[in-house]
Amino acid sequence: MSKVKVARKSTRIDMTAMSDVTVLLLTFFMLTSTFVKKEPVQVTTPGSVSEIKIPETNILSILIDPKGKVFMSMDKQADMVNTLDSVGSHYGVTFTEQEKKKFRIAQTFGIPIKSMKAYLALKGEEQDKVLGNYGIPTDSLDNQFKVWIQKAKAVNPAFRIAIKADQKTPYKVIKDVMSSLQDLRENRYNLITSLKNQSANKK
Amino acid sequence: MAEIQSNEGGGKKKKGGSKQKKISVHVDFTPMVDMNMLLITFFMLCTSLSKPQTMEINMPSNDKKITEADRDAVKASQAITIVITGGDSVFYYTGQPNYKDYNSLKLSSYKADGLRAFLIKRNFDAVNKINDLKQQKIQLKISQEQFTKQVSEIKGGKETPVVIIKAADRATYKNLIDALDEMQICNIGKYVIDKINPGENFLVKNYQTRGGLAQTTSPK
After folding, report:
1. Which residue of B has its CA nearest to A196?
2. Does B53 sit within 8 Å of A192, measured CB to CB?
3. Hey, of B53, B123, B178, B196, which one would you mutate to test binding to chain A, going by the most A CBs within 10 A of its CB?
4. A72-101: average pLDDT
5. By C-alpha distance, which of A145, A120, A142, A125 is closest to A64?
6. Contact B185 A201 (CB under 8 A)
7. Tens of pLDDT along A111-131?
8. Chain A neighbours among B 47-66 (CB < 8 Å)?
9. Gap from B215 CA to chain A (nearest CA, Å)
């Protein structure tokens, strides 16, 4: 009886190289990317040929949706709480530590100061749902937006203001925002746009 | 790579009788790869690679005293006023507004042959100089700092036109950005965003009625 020996081959694949590659990719993504901010409204910025990048820190961004609702966000949580404090005292509203803690984790805010307490009492998911219906009042009778900007600037004078508006936003709203800023002598600010490829750039 | 084979026992086999097993330390990297892939997917979905572009603008201050005087000073022959009314069309006029003649207001568009062609024609010297500088920069004859310095000098030159952008309430943000974009493309250094006044509204209406409005009323 002769036995035919079949060579047993191991089906193991060496995953080491694969692991190397994935770690490399992971490192790349972690270093180059920035986290997307949760925004209550969908905003499509208009395209432009401008190639200036926005600075990374000390950004006070103003978000304007197509219907003209205004929201704000800051990149430092400590600034947010301090601003809330001073805006609250301006309108005679005081916030508890609990409410401040909740406000701190919110990424974008835009609530009239009167509804702020009720809003902060809501749970996180419910906050996200209703936030899109609010917006900071910008009209001349009750210009809370101006107060917010003023107090934010007082908290952190290094803030750079960046306006991010939807391309369908009526100019009237932009004008209100801009003239509020002008009243505060904030004459330098950035308009956030997305890159547009333009071959006709040369001439 | 992840395999560590200890061959100590190999040589001793024949001499002694001690059978030492070949130990192969084989680490399975599959779970590690799984986890990494998961993390990569997370990062790809939750982060954005590209930072948004931005335009830096300086607005005139709201001081009433300064602006009134400045407005008059600017309305010389170099002034171009762009009136944005929404939609794809845009109006412009040069110098002082002429309320009598509806043809003084020109209808244009954001296309390459519209407003841009006009502005480049008006700003011909500066555009040419800056294009030369760009060429020099590509050929590495001048450094980035020199380039930016010279460009800002050319843009701030006395002969360059001054553009006043006025937008109506029904215009969109995109229209405004488009107009500001044209300033960039045409290398115009001096431009300002101003509020629209009844005079401009009158001009546009007058244009749309082919001068009919000017025969019956006057803006002021």
Report:
1. B53
2. yes
3. B53
4. 83
5. A145
6. yes
7. 888 888 888 888 777 777 788
8. 47-62
9. 30
Q: What is the DSSP letter of A201?
A: G
pTM value? 0.72
Written as six digits, the tokens of A4 are: 């035919």
Range of the structural domain that residue A77 is part of: 47-198
- Angle between helix B115-122 and B124-138 (nearest 10): 90
Judge residue B210's burial from the number of C-beta atoms within 10 Å of its C-beta, 0-12 exposed, 13-18 middle, 19 or more buried: exposed
Instruction: Look up residue A167 and give its DSSP letter.
Output: T
Residues in chain B within 8 Å Cβ distance of A59: none
- Between residues A147 and B200, which one has the greater pLDDT? A147
Sort out which chain B residues have CB atoms less than 8 A from A22's CB and list them: 33, 36-37, 40
Report the percent of chain B where pLDDT is more than 90: 4
SS3 state at B93? strand
pLDDT, one tens digit per residue, over B95-134 is 777 777 777 777 888 777 778 888 888 778 788 888 888 8
What's the mean pLDDT when you consider all of chain B?
75
Interface membership of B30 toward A (CB under 8 Å): yes
Report the C-alpha gap between A64 and A43 in whole angstroms: 8
Residue A191: inside a domain: yes
Within-domain flag for A149: yes
**Smallest Cβ distance to B173: which of A29, A54, A171?**
A171
- The DSSP-derived string for B202-218 is HHHHHHHTTTHHHHH--
Nearest to B174 among A32, A162, A168 (CB): A168
The more confidently predicted of residues B197 and B218 is B197
Domain total in chain A? 1
Helix ranges (H only) for chain B are 8-12, 30-46, 64-74, 115-122, 124-138, 144-155, 173-185, 198-208, 212-216
